[in-house]
Amino acid sequence: MNVNIDSKEQHTYDAIVIGSGISGGWAAKELAEKGLKTLVLERGRDVKHGVDYPTTNMKPWEFEHKGQLSLDVQKENPVVSKCYAFREDAQHFFVKDKEHPYVQDKPFDWIRGYQVGGKSLLWARQTQRWSDFDFTGPQRDGFAVDWPIRYKDIAPWYSYVEQFAGISGNKDGLAELPDGEFLPPMEMTKIESYFKEKVAARYKDRHIIIGRCAHITEVKPIFIEQGRVKCQHRDLCQRGCPFGGYFSSNASTIPWALRTGNMTLRPHSVVDSIIYDEQKGRATGVRVIDAETKESIEFFARIIFVNAAALNTNLILLNSKSSRFPQGLGNDNGLLGKFVAFHNYRARVSAEYDGFENFTKYGNRPNGCYIPRFRNVRKQETDFLRGYAAGLYSSRSIDRSQEGVGEELKSNLLSPKLGPWHVNSHIMGETIPKESNTVSLSPTLVDAWGIPQLKINIDYDDNDDKMVKDYLEQISEMFTDAGFTNIKTSDSHQAPGLDIHEMGGVRMGHDPKTSLLNKWNQLHACKNVFVTDGACMTSTATQNPSLTYMALTARAVDYAAKQINAKEL
Amino acid sequence: MQRRTALKQIGILAGGAMLLPSCIGKTTAPAAISLNKLVISGQQENLLALMAEALIPKTDTPGAREVKAHHFVLHMLDDCYEMDAQQKFLSGFAQAQQAIEAKTGKEFEDCSLQEQQTFLKEIEEGKIVPQLKAGEENNLEAFYKPFKGLTIRGYLGSEYIMTNIFGYNMIPGKFQGVVELSADSDLKTILG
Ligand SMILES: Cc1cc2nc3c(=O)[nH]c(=O)nc-3n(C[C@H](O)[C@H](O)[C@H](O)COP(=O)(O)OP(=O)(O)OC[C@H]3O[C@@H](n4cnc5c(N)ncnc54)[C@H](O)[C@@H]3O)c2cc1C
Description:
By secondary structure, chain A is α/β, with parallel strands linked by helices.
């Protein structure tokens, strides 16, 4: 009896955070800084900043296949092999297909990183704020439900997380893409600046801007305190950065939280479900399966933050069944796992330009240019809802003849010449959350830890097809107008998921009848459980989502701590 | 498991086919490179190194052999090519060996650099027709194309070439979007 009480005490914290990725890292930092004893449960192994980056200083010639993965690895991993960053230098940070199976009712490329830091080690670090044109989208256009927050609610929290994470960008003064607390912007190339001017001259509502990204471009005390220095433009970010030049949980929030002395990090802890106590009318803790021993362990806390990344957060809640919540925690309306959405990344346009032959660049830019959404922003103007942003990159090809044998070949190889400028763009389209896009628990299949596998049933619709068509036409027109040649358009028809911006299933809203979370990211029906990763997203907008997860998380922790102090939680 | 065994057998078969009477007594040392699937003899490894060197010879800078481009060829063939392509490569490699002997009366190893290069050029131009046994396919091209392509990649991606000639710098420290070139800009500036 006493033993049980002791162990229960030992397993009791003020707060539990599930997942240590971008959003979980922020929850951990904020909770620990506010003095709450916080347990972070992470299903994967620990990855210590600077220590567990095995490839970070490897030179290109030290990779046996110069980056390419073996055919066996590719064949064993048909899904994750589709991700551009799954290569010889970073493969160890990705989930392998066979280790964590899931059910694809429709093709869905689920790209995951299970380790301390989650996908924050791997992400492409693009970070843009939402505007009210995004938050009012569902209300204006009549889909999903109205967001319970507006830009003014989140703006101070954007500032708060930007100052700590370090966001580089240019103050462009665009209402549709609000400026942030920017560190100096990265530079554009000659042709990018030229294109920017050309577009500005023809279209008053279209803008080419430098990407806003989570890289330190100016030394500041707050970064030095984190042990991070300026981005060195190696452009090898996916390996983990020894300089901490870009934001990852590993380089930033996790060590910060540890230093407070209030955080306990427990890797190899697979959260099976959240425990709900009917008498108390609240969640009391979580059930964990030790990934290595498969032992089942329980941990307890006053508040629980669920940050397992969008779809796994859905899985955990769906799997948290009790007699009060037979369909999953907080799921009184049956909407948990529904209205999942993502970003449409199917389309690309490439072109060349004859000109600026005597211009090049120096160093590497771990960033690109960005075209904020220009369709249907202020009013509905096309035959599809919402719109798309676009990425834009330029480079010069290197022409190097491979003709000949012997000294002739050698001299050809050693006299490379710069080829024409190439310009590439890709779409980032908003998709409309639909009830038919769902995730649910497989009734029959479980994973190696006895947890039901996730069944994913997500697809594009007619709106996405129309948007792709419009993107290809509009970008082609802009390229043509700028005098670009050899314009090529493509629609990869890639499955949803490869955008790695899956969102929703536990959406925020005003009304408990039509949403799962309130405006503070609390489950309507179980107020001490907070969901602040992509699962909470009511709609997707066109921005890369992670900055918004960070801001929502910091905001929710602030609220939770105040509620605890007011004895409301 | 089965796939692995099958691959080993092909490796051995293809290797075995190359142990022609005239080759016996040549290098019998095992290959220095350690591969996952293919079985390569020391003689084959050496021959591939010589061919790579003929393709990109040493001048005042190292050639393909010194920068171990042939090892890159073998690693790529071993891990990144389908079984069928591996088989054809090794078969074409053996056919090339036989063809140069038929042409010059000497093994590749004993030919002058000039003879070796002329021979490679002739393969490239489709002028070499190997003698084929009944039912045997002409795999010269299936050998030569990846051999040349991979040797070039291995050579250009080698430490010596990347650092000493192209000025590879892992830590540029900054990014400059606009660099204007002039007639006397050096390679490092051009490649940025
Ligand atoms: C190649 C790539 C490029 C990207 N580019 C961008 C970009 O430019 N901009 C952008 O905004 N986003 C980008 N993303 C997406 C971005 O990485 C995610 O939006 C972000 O990491 C989500 O944060 P998260 O905390 O929700 O999830 P994650 O960072 O994935 O962290 C979730 C954590 O939870 C853990 N976990 C899962 N299930 C359990 C469980 N049952 N028990 C315990 N722990 C669990 C996981 O192991 C993981 O560590 C990119 C992603 C990739 C892979």
